[in-house]
Amino acid sequence: MPERDTHQPLPEPELPGEPIDPFVEHRRLLFGTAYHLLGSVADTEDILQDTWLKWRAVDQASVAHPKAYLVRTVTNLALNHLTSARAARETYIGPWIPEPVITAPTAAEESEMADTVSTAMLVVLETLNPVERAVFVLREVFGYSYADIGGFLDRPEATVRQILHRARSHVHARRPRFDADDAARKQITEKFMAACHGGDLNALMELLAPEVTLWNDGGGIVTAARRPLHGPDHVARWLLGVLAKPDSAGVRLEPVVVNGELSIVGTLGDYRIGAFTYDIRDGRIENIRFQVNPEKLRGIQAADRNPRTTE
Questions:
Q1: Could you identify which of 47, 103, 205, 272 might form a hypothetical disulfide with 232, taking C-beta atoms 3.0 to 4.6 angstroms apart as the criterion?
Q2: How far apart are CA 187 and CA 190, in angstroms?
Q3: One CATH from 3.30.160, 1.20.140, 1.10.3470, 3.40.50 for 22-176
Q4: CB within 8 A of 117, min separation 6: which ones?
Q5: Are the C-beta atoms of 205 and 236 separated by less than 8 Å?
Q6: What is the DSSP string of the chain?
């Protein structure tokens, strides 16, 4: 990846009546594309910075289709980064969970990333190779044609179709199937928070599926479980133990829409220190992903600093 020019901020939105720079016009789309490929807010913003530098350096008058040029650029930069990141994740301390990002209703309504995939889906996408992931995201999430994707990735259309077929089969075999509607998810979320705040072990265990698993990502920076936890008793006791520690005093659990689903964030003072995302089946929580790595929490801070908005 080229050295980043930290002295060149991304462009600000133009004033009414001024021509819109294509990078500004499509910034949310570019963010969404890179985030779906990388699962990292920080890395996505780095990719956008590199894309802006390339866009600034090119003869823009010679670019017939700026949107396609920008999507192609951000996709290939993300692919290059993802290839190296996959190697780094092999030595990551503890489970690796994608970075959560707040998707508040107001942000979703104005964003081309409105249908952000859930954290569970991002975990599934991690099992694809970089090119399969790019093809799947560009086709299934953003609806690009096979011809467009072939142009972005310098591959024949027939090859793109074959790659998508493999990726779809892989994703469909691993994609979680859950049945909670919004009302049920809200009710279970409220009960989960009440049980945690009240230290009620039995109530918490009642909410957890028999096969519940918890993954905890601390990245070796903060204390976290380095192996998945299994079973209602083990998971519930561990959660209540974490919340009972002295350094957890004053932590508030709050319902927040994260990655398109009602989830829970832990707040200490004015700072969000962790995010619970989870899946629900048959009225119980089946999987819990607990992100506490402070380097991966930028996307769950206050909604007015949502990284999907134009800065």
A1: 205
A2: 5
A3: 1.20.140
A4: 36, 125, 141, 259, 260
A5: yes
A6: -PPP-TTSPPPPPPPTTSPPPHHHHTHHHHHHHHHHHH--HHHHHHHHHHHHHHHHHS-GGG-S-HHHHHHHHHHHHHHHHHHHHHHHHTT-SS---PPP-B--HHHHHT-TTTTPPPHHHHHHHTTS-HHHHHHHIIIIIT---HHHHHHHHT--HHHHHHHHHHHHHHHHHH-------HHHHHHHHHHHHHHHHHT-HHHHHHHEEEEEEEEEE-TTTS---SS-EESHHHHHHHHHHHHHSGGGTT-EEEEEEETTEEEEEEEETTEEEEEEEEEEETTEEEEEEEE--GGG-GGGS-GGG-TTS--
Instruction: Give 219-233 pLDDT, tens digit per residue.
Output: 999 989 999 999 999
In the chain, what are the domain boundaries? 22-176, 182-300
Q: Which residues contact 52 (CB under 8 A, 6 or more apart)?
A: 8, 10, 11, 23
How confident is the model at residue 195, as a pLDDT?
97
Q: How, if at all, do strands 208-217 and 261-268 pair?
A: unpaired
Q: Cα-flanking dihedrals φ and ψ of residue 216, to 5°?
A: -130, 120
User: Whose CA is closest to 306, among 263, 272, 266, 268?
Assistant: 272
* 169 vs 135: CA distance, rounded Å: 13
Q: Is domain 182-300 given the CATH code 3.10.450.50 in the classification?
A: yes
